[in-house]
Amino acid sequence: MALVLSATPTHATSASTTVGLPGGNKIAINAWHCALYANACDWKASTKMSGLSPRKARWIQNRAELEAHGVSVSLTVSKNPEATMTMVSRSVAEVRWKNTHASISDTWGQMRPSKSTVYVSTRSCGSAQVTGAIKVSEKCAYAGAS
After folding, report:
1. How far is CA 85 from the centre of its chain?
2. pTM, two decimal places
3. Across residues 60-69, what is the average pLDDT?
4. Contacts of 121 (CB under 8 A, 6+ apart)
5. 3 state SS of 21
6. Contact at 8 Å (CB) between 141 and 42?
């Protein structure tokens, strides 16, 4: 049976982490990918700043690590055009986007793991330079096997 569920959040594996900032703003790091797939699995990772002080960061970055788990597995990945991608190994890809004068950096695409893959995972890591005085070091959220 070929089944791909990737657009409905109730059929997804997800995780998030939130960091409070001085002045009341927050940064949320989110990781999401499909829970069930036959040949391909949609994924999304984001770093979002909410609040009014300030409304936009000097820069905000998301780095997503996409991995196929199992013995002798491989992975191909598609991504949004503004992001850069590096294949770390045959089964691990890293997608990164640094957005300037913005409140969000999100990356997305599709994973195509090899048939021997047991499960896929998405680790979303976010960082930001909010103001000259407020810098957020990289924090991560991990969405593993469902």
Report:
1. 12
2. 0.89
3. 97
4. 33, 65, 66, 67, 69, 142, 143, 144, 145
5. coil
6. no
